[in-house]
Amino acid sequence: MEREVGVNNVKIAVVGGGLVGALNACFFAKRGFQVELYESREDIRRATVVKGRSINLALSHRGREALKAVGMEDKIVSKGIPMHARMIHSPSGKRSPIPYGKKGQYILSVDRANLNKELLSAAETYPSAKMNFEHKLVDWNLESGSMTFLRNDGSTKVTTCDLTVGCDGAFSAVRKRFMRQSRFNYSQTYIPHGYMELTIPPKHGDFAMEPNFLHIWPRNTFMMIALPNLDMTFTCTLFMPFEDFEKITTGDEVLDFFQRYFPDSIPLFGEEALKQDYFRLPAQAMVSVKCSPYHIGTTCVLMGDAAHAVVPFYGQGMNAGFEDCIVFDELLDQYNCDFSICLPEFTRLRVPDDHAIADLAMYNYIEMRAHVNSKWFLFRKHLDMILHYMMPNTIIPLYTMVTFTRTRYHKIVKRWQWQNKVINRGLFLCGVSSVLGGTYLLIKHPPCTPSIKLDRLWNWALSLK
Ligand SMILES: Cc1cc2nc3c(=O)[nH]c(=O)nc-3n(C[C@H](O)[C@H](O)[C@H](O)COP(=O)(O)OP(=O)(O)OC[C@H]3O[C@@H](n4cnc5c(N)ncnc54)[C@H](O)[C@@H]3O)c2cc1C
């Protein structure tokens, strides 16, 4: 049902019709704002080739809550594939699952293009929303408020609005205008790794591997992951330093590389298909962008990747972008759509959270490709789960807080640091008390005459040497 807040004359321009822009158009139109969405690409619902980033994405709690708020959750979830655990593939081909959370907790593999199409169609159902495809923002005059869009036929459209919402991605044209603003902070970091997508086809009309898992081949300095698709394929993403991608220049080198590091995956790809797939597209770069503030005055705000592009290793970029929309919507409720309060409040609330998830995503970059190979890491994961089971409100695993709650990201980081301190101290105390207890018992009840004779012990030690 639409909420009546007397906003029908307020004109909002959403720049960017990707995932966050399309969802935002739904949120604003639902309130009755006059929404104009401007997207530089053609309408992907009619496009024959959809260019862009990852084919599928992991949708989790924050994203689902935002979709629920615009009545889209069930539709999207029904086309998603639940992934209950990570499935770790060792170099020998051994597979070991590590659950994401408690029983019943899972993330969903969803098709990016389908999600984008559904959100655009949902936005279009509101009479106050208008879509403008093939409209690229090329100029925006903050003083006069006029925005210039370049159409594909070379013509331009100049327009004004009451609020500009920049959802135009990591290389945002809206954000460029912020750069000329005094006291605007901005940083961007390219990680040394690139990514490449490869496809595992169905096998005998079924998934070639267990479908309800996010498959991971961690190899310390690089890794491959695979997410299932509805058509029973898997989209594999190989993350690797660019210099390593560049070393592989022939089909035979591709096979050698996979034979060495991912041997169990070769029969799944098929040798010939793998050789071709590898050279289909060059490896893509990954950038992490942080900026602050997210708004200018009462007329412009950034959301999604335009405000905070994060590396994809926590599966939170889109989820955080969707959460931006719901947080802004909550602020509109709280402050009766007064932009002079909502915009600064949005910056105040979201900047620390988005910066925290950017840092967590960088941290997970190392955890996924390297830590999951360590016995200590696996022990800690199990211990965290046991402690969480015993004290569900005191110890909550980091992944659970990030993925299955809406706890603010920056609070999660603080809590995680506190939990780690408590658990590590607990483990230290357990270790010290076992050593002291064992020593006490040995002194109190010394063992009978040793059954191993000293000369035999000496010989054994010499043989070891
Ligand atoms: C390999 C990879 C895997 C990922 N996996 C996940 C995952 O599992 N889970 C997750 O939550 N996130 C994931 N992400 C992150 C996620 O893709 C992004 O966070 C999300 O796409 C951000 O949406 P957005 O709408 O802000 O930006 P975008 O999706 O980039 O959309 C921006 C839109 O703006 C348009 N645009 C750009 N410039 C202009 C202009 N000048 N004028 C008009 N329009 C313009 C673009 O054409 C585009 O349609 C992944 C990212 C990558 C790279």
From TrEMBL:
GO terms for CC?
mitochondrial outer membrane
UniProt record, GO biological process: 'de novo' NAD+ biosynthetic process from L-tryptophan; anthranilate metabolic process; kynurenine metabolic process; L-tryptophan catabolic process; quinolinate biosynthetic process
Q: Work out whether the entry's keyword set contains Protein transport.
A: no
Quote the catalytic activity from the record: L-kynurenine + NADPH + O2 + H(+) = 3-hydroxy-L-kynurenine + NADP(+) + H2O
Transmembrane feature ranges: 386-405, 426-443
Gene3D superfamilies linked to this entry:
FAD/NAD(P)-binding domain
* Required cofactor names: FAD
Protein task: Catalyzes the hydroxylation of L-kynurenine (L-Kyn) to form 3-hydroxy-L-kynurenine (L-3OHKyn). Required for synthesis of quinolinic acid, a neurotoxic NMDA receptor antagonist and potential endogenous inhibitor of NMDA receptor signaling in axonal targeting, synaptogenesis and apoptosis during brain development. Quinolinic acid may also affect NMDA receptor signaling in pancreatic beta cells, osteoblasts, myocardial cells, and the gastrointestinal tract.
Identify which top EC class this enzyme belongs to. oxidoreductase
Ranges where the FAD-binding domain occurs? 10-325
Q: Which organism is it from?
A: Acipenser oxyrinchus oxyrinchus
Task: Give the record's keywords alphabetically.
Answer: FAD, Flavoprotein, Membrane, Mitochondrion, Mitochondrion outer membrane, Monooxygenase, NADP, Oxidoreductase, Pyridine nucleotide biosynthesis, Transmembrane, Transmembrane helix
The pathway this protein participates in, as annotated, is:
Cofactor biosynthesis; NAD(+) biosynthesis; quinolinate from L-kynurenine: step 1/3
Protein name, as recorded: Kynurenine 3-monooxygenase
Q: Which Pfam families match?
A: FAD_binding_3 (PF01494)
Q: Where in the cell is it found?
A: Mitochondrion outer membrane
Q: What's the gene?
A: kmo
Q: How does it sit in the membrane?
A: Multi-pass membrane protein
- Entry EC no(s): 1.14.13.9
What is stated as this protein's family in its record?
A: Belongs to the aromatic-ring hydroxylase family. KMO subfamily.
